[in-house]
Amino acid sequence: MNLKKAANVKNIVCLAAVAALGVGIVIADKKGGNDNEIRKKADSSAAASSNAKGGGSEKTDKSGREKVILAAEIPELSCESVDFGGNVIFASPDGGYSFMENGDTVKGIAVQDDSGAEVKFSKEDGKLVLTRDDQPAAGFVYENHMIELKDGKLYIDSSPVEYKATSFSSYRINKDHVIECTEKGKYRIKDSNGKIVKTFELKENTGSKIKIKADDEGFYTEGVNDGWFYNVYRLGDDLLTTTWENVLYINGRELVPYGYTDDHVDPDVKVDIDKIGLEPMRPPIDYGSAADENNDISSLTGEMLSYVNEVRKQYDMPYVYGLDELDKAADIRAKELAENFSHTRPDEKESSYNTVLSSEGMVWWRSGENIAKGGADAKEVFDSWISSEKHRAVMLDPDMKYLSLAKYEADGETYWELLMFNDSYVPVEEEAE
């Protein structure tokens, strides 16, 4: 994918939103000056998207097309390493970086950018350093990808290169407590407020009340009433076992330190256990089929589709498509932005932006909106949105199916409306029953 450096968008003011019908706004408006990342690209920013069970549960739409079954997770828009033809930069658990050259750990790497200049990566005082032809540099282009170093953090095509542990290092033992492995054979307990506690009590599947203790000496479980050592018991569907050395296993898998089983981790790195992610994300399910008819859509919509789908392709996500009915709704919203530049409509009820979908006869369960003021063309506005986490999340929402872009000029200003929605959702839980 070729995502070149964002255009000069200092004069673009952006808003975006994500909301749920019957649930309310999920991501509230973020106005200019409060979002440091967006402030670098634009004067102000925010994002909007919505869920509703309005699409029904039928298998086909009115035209006979098969409806889509989607999951509601947004994938992480980042990677853990960048491979420059065998020379690799890996994100480390401490937030830094390490290097490998043809499989060997090295102190730095050198690559050649698309212009033929020599680019070198190294570390000084633990911080990543980038030079180009022996001069300090902030970025370069490699095989049409933009590589940037901003505030000591590495980015590829505006997405951060970040470490994510693959080791099994924490376990939620109940709704109020989490067990974390801090070092091999050493553990700690955190309550729902993040406070470290020494012990707590709970009931296992047989109804027996047991006392849990976890510390640097290992993981212990004993009966409250009988004082027995419980080395095998069940909590829900999980089987917990401990060895006589007090090492904890869950379903046969040992709880190990954060980063313990990961590849390419610098052995000298001191891990911050508080960076552990306790709730694993569920991967998206099969997306099924989607509409592939783009008849009668506007040229602006067609242009934006090409930009957005190129990025979605990078993340192995389903394409979004044009829809002439959505173009009409986007045109209405673009004109409304001149009256009220926000995600609410200029009516007495201050209705949400997504009511335009229903008023134009569209049934929807999920919707999203990005808006902007200023910008010379669709590409410049796209560059501004894709460089912002909240706006990018709307455009890369895996549950969206259709997209439209419209603009409206009034009083010397240009208003941009990106409207997205999905009309055919079958909840995974309901389908499985």
Automatic annotation (TrEMBL):
InterPro entries: CAP_dom, CAP_sf
CDD domains found in the cross-reference section: CAP_bacterial
Domain of life the protein comes from: Bacteria
Coiled coil: none
Disordered: annotated segments: 38-64
All copies of domain SCP, residue ranges: 305-415
Protein name, per record: SCP-like extracellular
